[in-house]
Fold this protein.
Amino acid sequence: MRNLTLRYGVTQFTYWAASSGAMAFATTYLLTKNVPAGTVGLVLALAGLLSCLTQPLLAALADRAERCILPQMLLAMSVFCCVCFAAQFIPSLPLAPLTILYAAAIWCSDAILPLLSALSVACNDAGYRVNFGAARGVAAAASALSMIAVGFLIARLGLVWMLAFLLAARAACAVSLCTYPRLQKPRTAHTDASCSVGQFFARYPRYCVSLLGVAFLGMFHCMTENYLIAIVTPLGGDSSTVGTALFISSLVAGPVIFFFSRIRSRLSDAAILKLAGVSFLVKAVGFLLARSLGAIYALEHLLRSGCIERMPQIIALQSEHCDPLLRAAQSGADAPADVCPTPTIAEGIAIGKPMRGEEILALSKKYNIAFVHAPEDKILAARAELARKGIYCEHTTAANYAAYQEYCRLHGETPDTLITMCGAGLKSDH
């Protein structure tokens, strides 16, 4: 029996090298090309939806053909992806066709996947040996290398080199597909086991409910990978950081994929799905606990999505007795000033060495954030005034109001101001 595992592994490797990079950095590419964030989300969602709709049609076409046409279908779709990537090199290509062609490449690449998996089955049915687990494990390595390579290329050399890498990988996949022998379909008796969608849901209700859960997991996976650049950029990362993160995730996935057949022989499908669900939950908690400067990044998101027309004036406050950021901002420094904190009633903001001071100062320069002291001798008076207004807050929260009053004293009344009041008075009633 002729062994096609190496050939199939090359096809899997080149497919995932192109597909992983194109999908993971689609948002980065389109946003850099000045495509609005809302449009990016819409076209990528439509590409995914179109893939879901066309995959059954493509599978039916392959199934009804008298001979095995999977290599030819995969070759045609790979060439189409190459054309879409090559079109991105056209100078002054209008934004609309640029976006549509890139989304078309994403759609086609996604639609290829089930056919590529079916190719291993077709090879085995035709009398050729293919170790799918080994080939798919190699593909996981390709994903890892593609992530870190594309991230590096974007961060260091620019988008043109990213496109060149994706085009070369997709072209290599097309070349590998030209090397397959002619595959014969096994002769099987025809049985009419078709049923309507309603009959399928009635026959397999629990399976259909599980599919809904898998759909949610898929949506979560797509959203986090597509917008990972938007998650890491506010934390000081760039495309290279995204590539490194996805490289690590692919390395972790590689052994699982490689030994999946053995894992499946020891665990039921239901247990595997439950483990996947728990893994995605851990991933979601990780994103939730990731460090962030919530107020600024929330405003940045509102600005990018068009909900607000301009960034509001942000006023940052520091205690008179502990003000490393205020001093650095006044001197134009990039790092917090060295200070010796003295006791302050606003102990919640008495941080002499802010962990993310450089990031805060960088954002303060980017958005012209104003710094002001919360006068130590005004905090209790501010707390009492707030209490008379029905807001009973703790001392650090009252420092916000005292700092606002100090800002108005120095610069005049503001037309409208939002002041955070987030600490209950019972926390520090002394």
